Amino acid sequence: MPQPKLLQVGSRVELHPATDRWMMGDRYGTITAKRIQVVGRATSAPAHTEYRVKLDVSGKSFWMHEDNILHEGNDEHEALAKAST
What we know:
The protein is an alpha+beta fold and about 80 residues long. It has one domain (about 10-85): Thrombin, subunit H (Beta Barrel), CATH 2.40.10. Helix content is about 15%, strand content about 40%. The chain has two helices and five strands. Strands 4-3-2-1-5 form a five-stranded antiparallel sheet, with no helix packed on it.
């Protein structure tokens, strides 16, 4: 089974279908920044990664939890969708 690629700044991504932005048609974007959030002050507190994603349709940027990024975006699919509208 192929290994999933790690998300990096500059990667094209698709948002998870459960997000409001995805439901509004803002599905694909580019990662522009990354930050690690530590929950709580204890050293054993779990951390999660957030990514700043600049979305294609609206041009807006949002901080997205790593679980809200479905996978790397498909540029071909996006080009076909734009051509059909």
